[in-house]
Amino acid sequence: xxxxxxxxxxxxxxxxxxxxxxxxxxxxxxxxxxxxxxxxxxxxxxxxxxxxxxxxxxxxxxxxxxxxxxxxxxxxxxxxxxxxxxxxxxxxxxxxxxxxxxxxxxxxxxxxxxxxxxxxxxxxxxxxxxxxxxxxxxxxxxxxxxxxxxxxxxxxxxxxxxxxxxxxxxxxxxxxxxxxxxxxxxxxxxxxxxxxxxxxxxxxxxxxxxxxxxxxxxxxxxxxxxxxxxxxxxxxxxxxxxxxxxxxxxxxxxxxxxxxxxxxxxxxxxxxxxxxxxxxxxxxxxxxxxxxxxxxxxxxxxxxxxxxxxxxxxxxxx
Length: 318
Ligand SMILES: NC(=O)c1ccc[n+]([C@@H]2O[C@H](COP(=O)([O-])OP(=O)(O)OC[C@H]3O[C@@H](n4cnc5c(N)ncnc54)[C@H](OP(=O)(O)O)[C@@H]3O)[C@@H](O)[C@H]2O)c1
What we know:
The protein is about 25% helix and about 25% strand. By secondary structure, the protein is an alpha/beta fold. Strands 3, 5, 6, 9, 10, 17 and 18 form a seven-stranded mixed sheet that branches. Strands 13-12-11-14-15-16 form a six-stranded parallel sheet, with helices on both faces. Bound molecules: NADP nicotinamide-adenine-dinucleotide phosphate.
């Protein structure tokens, strides 16, 4: 079958580490099943993998990709939950299993004609969502869903600042938060965030008209100081990523004096993915797709992500 793999690591030129071509069919352990992939979406995670972050050399070559929608062995339309973990280890939440991994870290990922996953990782795809739309949801949108609706101590009507609006998780945060009745503010190096329905968009690092209840962070070092300054006393930063670096000054005095919280968040459970699909179906929210292209052109999608030349998701079709 055709697949897109990480053949080696290259921190400086990750695209040179991509290999396209024939790959053996997936092996299917007991309790697992196969999915015929119809669409898969790109995440920054795939670029990190090519740079050698989060993937160990002894696992190469590894088929890339966390996200997919396709057909199960009986021809049903399904979305694939990307977290491979044991939900019984930690109260039903597979993301808290210390042995969990994401597709493409330990087991082959979704950038292939077929993939093998545990049977329980399949969630029915609502007919209202296309394969391309559904394939955007399992990583970026699920992460945003948990950050906003589970991890952040806020509710509808709260004011939320999203840093770096152009990213996959950030666009998801704006779209989902807006639909749920939050007042969504964003920072961005471009104007596009207004198109998503953000109430106000500010230049990265700009002074805000008032302090916010919560900040959603994916950028890291480049925006961390601003995130802490943006919070009301008692506010919270929810963080799921650090694209620009992960070791900014912590500003501990501000944290304890203003009683701020820093809350980590990672992916979401299979149950949350099911609820996210229902949320999209009911609210009319659809993931923003920057471009869709055949999987055979995957390096062009990676190049656009590395250049930062995107607003929304890159989807590969089969
Ligand atoms: N923990 C999890 O479960 C999880 C899940 C998904 C993603 N992640 C992580 O979350 C991060 C975001 O991933 P993503 O795929 O959504 O987006 P991304 O492609 O990494 O981009 C994030 C956005 O950050 C802004 N940005 C990047 N560098 C910047 C800089 N130096 N200064 C200011 N702004 C900057 C840009 O926004 P503007 O262009 O609008 O300025 C960019 O679009 C990644 O590190 C990823 O690994 C974690």
